[in-house]
């Protein structure tokens, strides 16, 4: 969970009341938060730099507060204070609106070129007018950006924020992607201009910025934002221009959020402008910006600041939580959580979700807020109406028994990755990928994790490759799940629990694997079927590119095909860089439950 550092005296001033540490801790808990630590700024600095420090009475007290990961609106003092004051029913819920001041004669626009699609395709913008920042609010503004970068922005890889003094630049703005050598500007707090490539070298050893360089470092084009006079505003996600930096004297702020995920960009922008629009000359008012993408006729007006409506049943909500309350009080409790609610048609409650609450996606999220407003400690403990006894899943119990017996048979258990490459489950095993019912990862981090495994054999063969220096024979096994694409299931895929084992020696040792199969069937109380009927198990000759020709058999148990066994094909061994013959077995154990 994110932790924010808030100055105690500044927070109490915003709340209009002082609390003891215990009182504020109880207030945080009643609001669904946790006061993690009471410290000082100097003590925090001492811990970070590994120096000793004693607390002095004159030092400023800092509250470190744990914030739920999905509550982006509480990541700064402004949002936190507003939420608590509404919760305490001391102020009405803020109403955020979009408006262009009468003194502004034109609608600002951001033009996005086609080349941006190759590196960082989306941008959303907004303008805050008539701001009056203090040192504390300025620091909070910067800190919120950093929290959003680390949290929803995933260290700027998904979202990065640029803020600029609107009085130093002029629209319309251009969002482009250009070669590093064509970019030249003076970065924030620097005294001379650098090219794009030189900026990357400049910050290669920077304590904070060096971690963001790999996001665009290998790209032939760098994202760049210009104003109407061809003045660089920023090079996202790395650094802003020194020309448009904001200060305590800044009255109008232009905010641009570039991203690889448009939804997260909009959430980030909504969070930022809603938190700090309270400092605008016209409170809670944000000036929108039109975003135009080259090659399309659509113009997006951002931020949207949408108010969404959801309808819940009062009885369903209270029964879900385990409390008794009237619809009117349910609506009042939800309104304390910034969810304006009204009773409609007896038991139905219309809930208005503000643009600050992107965490509300389902009725159960509203129920959670109702629980917080009611008070977790006020919910009476009751005995469940349906008594149940916890027990191990039969499939897991069977898996554990088989693991124990396989270990007793001299095999060593392995635990391999559930994700693997496309080649691991297809080409290396002699199959075409189109013939494999594999679930593909849409955005794999590396080529090693492109699909979910459809077989346990690739993981075992990789394990053998990593242990080639171990003395022979090598006998390893794994009992785990594979995932198979299945259009008949709700999610389009299903898990299947399998057992796989490999024997590796100077000879293939097919008899060892065959003996292991007989032992497994003996444990499962499945007899050998002499007449090859639907009772018992037997082997049937099969052809499989993974196994050596005429050295492969399908295993039939109780009339069902449960897997295969055989001598692994030399081509497969070569692709996994193995030079000793191997025999293997892989079966589905779910039919034996």
TrEMBL record:
SMART domains: B3_4 (SM00873), B5 (SM00874)
Residue ranges constituting the B5 domain according to the UniProt record: 305-381
Cofactor: Mg(2+)
GO MF terms, alphabetically ordered: ATP binding; magnesium ion binding; phenylalanine-tRNA ligase activity; RNA binding
Origin superkingdom: Eukaryota
GO cellular component: phenylalanine-tRNA ligase complex
Gene3D superfamilies reported in the protein's UniProt record: 3.30.56.10, Bira Bifunctional Protein, Domain 2, Phenylalanyl-trna Synthetase, Chain B, domain 3
EC numbers on record: 6.1.1.20
Cell location: Cytoplasm
Keyword Nucleus (UniProt): no
PANTHER family assigned: PHENYLALANINE--TRNA LIGASE BETA SUBUNIT, PHENYLALANYL-TRNA SYNTHETASE BETA CHAIN AND LEUCINE-RICH REPEAT-CONTAINING PROTEIN 47
Protein name, per record: Phenylalanine--tRNA ligase beta subunit
């Amino acid at each position: 969970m994110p932790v924010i550092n808030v100055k105690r005296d500044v927070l109490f001033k915003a709340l209009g009341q002082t609390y003891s540490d215990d009182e504020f801790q109880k207030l945080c808990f009643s609001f669904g938060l946790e006061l993690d630590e009471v410290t000082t700024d100097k003590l925090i600095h001492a811990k970070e730099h590994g120096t000793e420090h004693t607390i002095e009475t004159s030092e400023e007290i800092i509250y470190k507060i744990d914030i739920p990961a999905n509550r982006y609106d509480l990541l700064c003092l402004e949002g936190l204070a507003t939420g608590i004051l509404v919760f305490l029913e001391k102020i009405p819920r803020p109403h955020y609106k979009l408006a262009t001041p009468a003194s502004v004669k034109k609608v600002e626009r951001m033009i996005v070129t086609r080349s941006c699609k190759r590196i960082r395709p989306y941008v959303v913008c907004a303008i805050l007018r008539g701001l009056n920042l203090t040192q504390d609010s300025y620091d909070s503004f910067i800190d919120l950006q950093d929290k959003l970068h680390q949290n929803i922005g995933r260290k700027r890889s998904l979202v990065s924020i640029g803020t600029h003094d609107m009085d130093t630049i002029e629209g319309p703005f251009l969002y482009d992607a250009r070669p590093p050598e064509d970019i030249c500007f003076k970065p924030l707090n620097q005294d001379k201009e650098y090219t794009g490539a030189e900026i990357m070298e400049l910050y290669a050893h920077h304590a904070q910025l060096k971690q963001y360089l790999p996001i665009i470092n290998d790209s032939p084009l760098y994202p760049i934002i210009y104003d109407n006079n061809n003045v660089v505003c920023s090079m996202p996600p790395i650094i802003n221009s020194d020309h448009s930096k904001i200060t305590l004297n800044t009255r109008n702020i232009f905010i641009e959020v570039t991203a690889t995920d448009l939804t997260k960009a909009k959430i980030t922008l909504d969070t930022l402008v809603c938190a700090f629009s309270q400092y605008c000359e016209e409170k809670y008012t944000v000036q929108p910006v039109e975003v135009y993408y080259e090659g399309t006729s659509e113009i997006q007006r951002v931020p949207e600041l949408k108010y969404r409506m959801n309808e819940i049943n009062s009885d369903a909500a209270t029964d879900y939580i385990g409390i008794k309350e009237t619809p009117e009080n349910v609506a009042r409790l939800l309104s304390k959580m910034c969810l304006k609610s009204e009773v409609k048609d007896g038991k139905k409650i219309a809930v208005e979700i503000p643009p600050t609450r992107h965490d509300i996606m389902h009725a159960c999220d509203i129920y959670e807020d109702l629980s917080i407003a009611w008070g977790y400690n006020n919910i009476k403990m009751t005995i469940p109406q349906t008594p149940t006894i916890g027990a191990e899943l039969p499939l897991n119990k069977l898996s554990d028994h088989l693991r124990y017996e396989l270990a007793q048979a001299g095999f060593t258990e392995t635990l391999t990755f559930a994700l693997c490459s496309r080649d691991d489950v297809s080409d290396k095993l002699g199959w075409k990928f189109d013939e494999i019912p594999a679930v593909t990862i849409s955005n794999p981090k590396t080529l090693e994790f492109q699909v979910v495994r459809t077989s346990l054999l690739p993981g075992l063969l990789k394990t053998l490759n990593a242990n080639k220096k171990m003395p022979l024979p090598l006998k390893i096994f794994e009992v785990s799940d594979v995932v198979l694409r299945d259009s008949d299931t709700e999610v389009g895929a299903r898990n299947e629990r399998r057992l796989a084992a490999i024997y590796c020696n100077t000879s293939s040792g097919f008899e060892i694997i065959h003996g292991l199969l007989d032992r497994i069937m003996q444990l499962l109380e499945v007899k050998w079927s002499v007449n090859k009927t639907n009772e018992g198990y037997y082997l049937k000759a099969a052809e499989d590119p993974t196994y050596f020709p005429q050295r492969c058999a399908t295993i039939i148990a109780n009339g069902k095909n449960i897997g295969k066994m055989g001598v692994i094909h030399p081509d497969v061994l070569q692709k996994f860089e193995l030079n000793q013959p191997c025999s293997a077995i892989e079966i589905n154990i779910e039919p034996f439950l």
